[in-house]
Design brief:
The protein is α/β, with parallel strands linked by helices. The longest helix is centred in the last third of the chain and has 27 residues, at about 385-410. β13 and β14 (about 280-285) form a beta hairpin. It is built from 18 helices and 21 strands. The strands form six sheets. It has a seven-stranded mixed β-sheet with strand order 15-16-14-13-19-20-21. The chain has a six-stranded mixed β-sheet with strand order 3-2-1-5-12-11, sandwiched between helices. Belongs to the FGGY kinase family.
């Protein structure tokens, strides 16, 4: 006998895998599936995905999650009210409007092939590296979508030809997925949301529309860009040929913004998502705060066309969990990512080893694309365990660097503290299952780390947005509940101030050693 209920689903399209979750009204997962897809590294510093493989991963996840929920007696087909979507940000696709085929692989957010374009623009533009900060809150960097699009326009004949014919469409991964899910060449809807658009370098943070002056300066035609919508509204319905035909897509957010919603971060509250990279966002309320300490001013979320816009300060870290994958896949020190905790736990310190994972440069707050990874302090005493622990510490040091900048930018009035006058960092993402990592983080911060019972807050945030759009949930109820803190695991610091200062000083020395290494001979 099937269980008649109300359901909301979410697509979580990340850097290394796609996942699909089905939730009941109490936000409990009743079906899910995930699929990993191929990473392509054509040259040093280049990272690509196959857009068609990503599409098929979404189809597979939808089908298998639905099958699991149905097998457990849930009538999802009749009870599913809406689907939310969250995605890896900044990654770009250009495709043919007439055929639906990608004109090149997706260029991934961490790809650094555009460094020469960035340097050229820095020299040519009167504002240099910060020329566009006033409009979009972002510095010139290989990280953002606009320069990736410029590279495609300059280097790929197929893209130039499609632009000339008026047959090219541009989008981040959310746009690519929604266009295909809603019909593709047969009437697919070409949209993006305010959070993903805010990461292109092309959206004006005040008007929430494409900035005409920026488009003119960069020579990007407005007609290839998608329409910008809010994070919570009915965008369109799933087309024939897909699982869940006719169900509305009603929520769309970049992954880090979705995690903010999933963590119910109100003004003055921050979260860090530990995934391939690590991303710390502090909700600054309804007014953007300009950073003077190397952070990004960005949009947090806008949960409805008429809802207030929340802004955020963000610190982006390129390599976090990816360093653990490197230990596994490239060095063979571990055979699975989960092994790193037990390996690192065999020692109580790194033995003086410091690892800086500047594989493709350093993001916030350093912004050095000439940096490269180093592992220093190695002696004959150094073991695999010391290196494993140094990798975990590197993730935590980078988060501390960002939070220190955040505290300086936001100031006392911009942060919410608990009754102990302690700033709590909310954490989520796959790596947070590692208790040692979380304890190291608390020790280096000197303040508590809060891990929710459900660490998959990115997918949950997308589901919340879709549910808000169709009336399953109310925004004020989700943000007022306080349930996340009540059911969380809290890691409190056990370290001394003196120990913390010595460790941080040593880390800063190690970071400085990474600068200017990009031109080392192969």
């Amino acid at each position: 006998m099937s269980k008649e209920q109300t359901f909301i689903a979410s697509i979580d399209q990340g850097t290394t895998s796609t996942r699909f979750f089905i939730y009941d009204k109490s936000a409990r997962i009743i079906g899910s599936h995930h699929v990993e897809f191929t990473q392509f590294y054509p040259e040093a510093g280049w990272v690509e995905h196959d857009p068609m493989e990503i599409l098929e991963s979404v189809r597979s996840c939808m089908t298998k999650a639905l099958d699991k929920a149905t097998a457990d007696g849930y009538n999802v087909d009749s009870g599913l009210k809406a689907i939310g979507l969250t995605n890896q940000r900044e990654t770009v696709v250009v495709w043919s409007k007439s055929t639906g085929s990608p004109l090149y692989n997706a260029i991934v957010w961490m790809d650094v092939r555009t460094s020469s374009i960035c340097r050229k623009l820095e020299k040519e533009l009167p504002g240099g590296r910060t020329h566009f900060v006033e409009s979009c809150g972002l510095p010139l960097s290989t990280y953002f979508s606009a320069v990736k699009l410029l590279w495609l326009m300059e280097n790929k004949e197929e893209v130039r030809a499609a632009l000339k014919k008026g047959d090219a469409l541009f989008g981040t991964i959310d746009t690519w997925l929604i266009w295909n899910l809603t019909g593709g060449v047969n009437g697919g809807i070409h949209v993006t949301d305010v959070s993903n658009a805010s990461r292109t370098m092309l959206m004006n943070l005040q008007t929430l529309d494409w900035d005409k002056a920026t488009l003119k300066t960069l020579g990007i035609p407005a007609e290839i860009l998608p329409k910008i919508v809010s994070n919570a509204e009915v965008i369109g319905k799933i087309a024939k040929g897909w699982p869940l035909f006719g169900v509305p897509i009603a929520g769309c957010l970049g992954d880090q913004h979705a995690a903010m919603v999933g963590q119910a971060c109100r003004r003055g509250e921050a979260k860090c998502t530990y995934g391939t990279g690590a991303f710390i966002l502090l909700n600054t309320g309804t007014a953007p705060i300009k950073s003077t300490h190397g952070l990004l001013t960005t949009l947090a979320f806008k949960l409805g066309p008429k809802a207030q816009t929340n802004y955020a300060l963000e610190g982006s870290i390129a390599i976090a969990g990816a360093a653990v994958q490197w230990l596994r896949d490239s060095l063979g020190i571990i055979s699975s990512a989960s092994e790193i905790e037990s390996l690192a736990s065999k020692v109580d310190c790194t033995g003086g080893v410091y690892f800086v994972p500047a594989f493709n440069g350093l993001f916030a707050p350093w912004w050095r694309d000439d940096a490269r990874g180093i592992c220093i302090g190695i002696t004959r005493f150094t073991s695999k365990s010391h290196i494993a622990r140094a990798v975990l510490e590197s993730m935590c040091f980078q988060v501390k660097d960002v939070l220190d900048s955040m505290h300086k930018d936001a100031g006392e009035k911009g942060e919410v503290k608990n009754e102990k006058e302690e700033f709590l960092l909310r954490v989520d993402g796959g790596a947070t299952v590692n208790n040692l990592l979380m304890q190291i983080q608390a020790d280096l911060l000197g303040s508590s780390v809060v891990r929710p019972a459900d660490i998959e807050t990115t997918a949950l945030g997308a589901a919340y947005a879709a549910g808000i759009a169709v009336g399953v949930w109310k925004e004020e109820e989700l943000f007022a509940s306080g349930q996340i803190i009540k059911t969380a695991s809290i890691f409190s610091p056990k370290s001394s101030v003196e120990w913390r200062k010595k460790k941080v000083d040593s880390w800063c020395k190690a970071v400085e050693r990474t600068f200017g290494l990009a031109d080392l001979e192969m």
